[in-house]
Each structure stands twice: as C-alpha cells, then as structure tokens.
Amino acid sequence: MSINWFKYSAPSSFYPLAGKVAPWFAFTAAILFVVGLYLSFFVAPTDYKQGEGYRIMFIHVPAAWMSMFIYIIMACWAAAGMIWRTRLSSMMASALAPTGAIFTFIALWTGALWGKPMWGTWWVWDARLTSELILLFLYIGFMALESAIDDPRRAARASGLLALVGVINVPIIYYSVQWWNTLHQGASIKMSESGGMETSMTEIMLWTLLIMTFACWFYTIAIALTRVRSIILERESNNVWVKEMLQGER
Amino acid sequence: MAEFFAMGGHGFYVWGSFGVAAVFMIIEAVLVVRQKRTLVQRLGRMVRMNSEVE
Amino acid sequence: MKWVSSNISISVAIKVGFMFAALKCVISRDLTLAMRHRSDVLTTVFFFIIVVSLFPLGVGPEAELLRSMAAGVVWVAALLASMLALTRLFSDDYNDGTLEQLLLVPQPLALLVFGKILAHWLISGVPLVLMSPLLGLQFGLGSDALIMLVLTLLLGTPVLSLIGAIGAALTLGLRGGGVLVSLLVLPLYIPVLIFGAGAVEASASGMGAQGHLSLMGAILILALLLAPLASAAALRISVE
C-alpha cells in the first residue's frame, strides 16, 4: 500500500490531515515541556561557577537553535513553492515565519537576561547574539514584505525569493560577525565562557537541552500546522471545497 | 519553597527569561487558535449568506 | 566537419555581439536619463556629506575620537546614501511601462538588469567614492587610511548596488516601498560594512588589510554572479 504523498500536497486534502495531526503535536509538546522543565529545575545540578543562573541556558539555547532551524526550513518551503509552484509550500513558509521570529526574540531576551548576572551588562556584542539580532531583522523583513503585497501569489513568490537570498547570506553574516567579534576582542566581554561551560556539561544537562529542543520543535509544528490551516482558509475561501466544508462544520 | 524561587539570588533573571518565553508561546498559541476559529465563523456566515441569496 | 564548426562559432559570435550591444544600449540609456535630471545624482551625494558631517556635531570634535570612528561613520553613511538611491533604480521604468518591454527583449534579462545596476552604480556609487577622501580629511584620517577608505568603498559600493537591486525589484510598486527596501536590504549589507570599515581600521593600526580586501573581493564576485540573476527573477515576480 504505497501512500500517494502527492495527494496531500493539495490544500483541500492537506487541510483535514493537518487538523487531525496538529493536536497530537501540541499534546506531545506539552508533555516534553513538562519533563524538560522538571529536569532543568530539579534534576540538573547547580553549576559551580554560575550557580543557579545558568539554568537560563535550557530555554536560551533551544530558542536560538530553533530560530536558525526554522529560518532554514522556511527557506526550503519557499524554494519548493517557487520551483514546483505549489501554493501549499509557500503557505507553510509564511506559517512558520512568526514562530521563528518569536523564538529569535526569546533567544535575544533570554541571552540578555543571562548576560546581566554573569557579565554585568544587558547587551553583549557577542558574535552569536549579534547574528541572532540580524536574524530577527531577516524575519521581520520577510513578514513585512509578505504583508506589503496584496496579491497572495506575488507575495508568496516575492517572500520566497527573499528567504532564499537570506538563507545564502546567513552563513556569510555569521562568519563576518564572528570575524568582527574576534577582531575587537579587547573591547567587548567574551561570552565564550558559556562555550567553555558547554564542554563541561554533564550528561543530564545535555539530555535536558535535547528534551527542551524537541519540545520547542513539536510546539513549532503544532503552531505552524494550525496557522497554515487558517492561511489555507483565507486564500482558498472562494473554492468549492471550502464552501462545502464550511457548510458541514457549523 | 522560597529558596526555589530565589534561584540562588538569580531568581529575577531565571524567572524573567522562562516567564517571558512561556508568555510569548502561550499568547501565540491562543492567538493562532482564535484566529482560525473567527475565520471559520466569518467564512461560514458569508457562505450561508450567499447560499440564502441564490 | 571543420566547415560546420566554424559556422557554429560564427553564430555564437553574432549572439554575443548582440548581447553586448544590448548591454551597452541599456547602460547608455540609463546614464543619459540620469544626466537629464542631474539633481537626483546630487541629492545622493549631498545626503552622504550631510550625514557624515553631522557626527562630529553629535559626538564632539576631539580629533582622536573622530579619527577612530571615521571609517565606520563614512561607511554607514555610504550604505544609507546608496540605499536612498535604490528606489529610483526600477521605479521610473516600472511606472511608464518600459520595464515590461525590457522583459520581452530576446536578450537574457539578467544581463539587462546588470546593465541597469552598473549604470546605477556609476550614478550613485562612484560619486560617493570620489567624495569620501574629502570627508575622511574632515575626520583627520591619515593619507594611507584615506587610500584604504577609497579602495574599500570602490570594492564595496558595487555590492551595495547589486544586493540593493534585489530589494528594489522585490518591492516594486508597493506603497511604502522605500522604507521596506531598507528593512529587506540592510541586514544583507552587514558583511560589506564589517569588512569595509574593518579594513580601514586594520590598515590604520598597521595590521594590514589584505584579509579584509580579499574577502570584500570575494563578496563582490559572488554578488556580481548571483545578484543580477536574483533581481531578474524578482522583476519577473513583481511585473507579472
């Protein structure tokens, strides 16, 4: 029994599937969050140098990973949408963007709050935090372009192209910021001590990080699937299958 | 219990970051679900109106 | 067999000849258009001068401080000035319909877009490069730092026009397009800014700027190759 995957590439058949699957992802995300938070607060040992403050790492690092990961996934969906002209893929890209932007903001916020007790300043011009800030600008640019264009077909393809141009630039930006950071090393406080700490991570800390990252991942899928369903409704509202479906679902 | 919230003096920062992260995630979830519900209702009403007109 | 192969090479030569003719025609057309209303060229340069001259008023006239931040200020001002000139890159042709004709030309669109970008750089990039030594003097830069500043701007401003063209093509005909272009394009300018300003500082502090300049050259070649293709694709998206 080979599943015909292309059946689900049509919005009309993808919509009910997403509806059935999204709650499961949300449920698993909730469970993983509970386990992750329990581990990060009660099981993970106190760090000899940073005391309890280092626990911020258990939300900062997953959020940072997710922000980068979602941008790459968004660019892949955008590329698929442009290459195969499938409307659903560009809808997925625009469904992911807000969640990616929120994770970037969370990463910046928690980074600042982690920096204050450890290095005494709210904002550290560290290479990773600066690239995170630039990634936030890329997300905002993507969403701004998409909302500025009225015709959804042009909006999808224009923001898709921007995502592709952006994803080519992300590594260039990251390494140029890295280069810039090492050059002005004297001026700014190095945040790489946390880098050092990562190597001395105990087994349990690593597991907590992984669980929290998976929790964020499942959360993103649940949110993206729900948001893509409302985008499908918006853009396909004049299609017949939407009318029938709406008549059915009071 | 109190010393748990104190977080070894870094309570403000730890709960500040976890709290903001939780708030953002919950608000986003609620907004997305409500956005879909209102959309379904609005389109449903429009469909019903059109069907009555025909 | 030899007779056939020479035929092919002749037809290729003719085709390439047409391409260069098209390229030359686009560039000369854009330059003559720009020369007709010269004020646009001057506004970009005057914006550049004003922004740079504002900093000492804001930061204070200490020579040492100004010298240390001169490269960064001149570079950021060059970034903003070239971005200001971006909105006119395609919008005039878009409004009077010549852009649709440009899309129908049998020559590769990327080549024509490259011609337009080159003309745009000549109009808005080169004046900035010519003005920068004067502004560098205003900040008390030494002669070798000035030469490095001009060199980095010469390498960097084409990249600004190339990447900016993608943003301009994407936001064609949108209300509030000017502000939107800056939001899309500024994050992509950051590597050029870092290496440009860094090169001047590195040469001033005697560390030598070979690394910076070679990286800027690499970014320039990458942009020369990819940017016209990307902005041609963006034009096709915006105009349809």
What does the model show?
The complex is a heterotrimer of chains A (250), B (54) and C (240). Chain A is 79% helix and 0% strand. Chain A contains 8 helices and no strands. Chain A has helices spanning 11-43, 57-83, 87-119, 127-148, 152-183, 192-199, 203-235, 240-248. The longest helix of chain A has 33 residues, at 11-43. Chain C has helices at residues 2-36, 39-59, 63-84, 88-96, 98-104, 109-138, 143-170, 177-204, 210-239. The longest helix of chain C is centred in the N-terminal third of the chain and has 35 residues, at 2-36. Chain C starts with a helix and ends with a helix. Chains in contact: A-B, A-C. The interface between A and C is medium-sized, with 26 and 28 residues.
Structure characteristics:
heterotrimer, B: 54 residues, mainly alpha, 89% helix, rod-shaped, C: 240 residues, 88% helix, 0% strand, globular
Structure in a nutshell:
The complex is a heterotrimer of chains A (250), B (54) and C (240). Chain A is mainly alpha-helical and 250 residues long. Chain A has helices at residues 11-43, 57-83, 87-119, 127-148, 152-183, 192-199, 203-235, 240-248.
Topology:
The complex is a heterotrimer of chains A (250), B (54) and C (240).
Chain A: H1 11-43, H2 57-83, H3 87-119, H4 127-148, H5 152-183, H6 192-199, H7 203-235, H8 240-248
Chain B: H1 2-6, H2 11-53
Chain C: H1 2-36, H2 39-59, H3 63-84, H4 88-96, H5 98-104, H6 109-138, H7 143-170, H8 177-204, H9 210-239
Helix pairs in contact in C: 1-6, 2-3, 2-6, 3-6, 3-7, 3-8, 6-7, 6-9, 7-8, 7-9, 8-9
Radius of gyration of chain B: 22 Å
Number of helices of chain A: 8
Q: Tell me the helix content of chain B.
A: over 70%
Beta-strand residue fraction of chain A: under 5%
Radius of gyration of chain A, CA atoms, in whole angstroms: 21 Å
- What characterizes the major β-sheet of chain B? none
Compute the number of strand runs of chain B. 0
Shape of chain B: rod-shaped
- Give a short account of the largest sheet of chain A: none
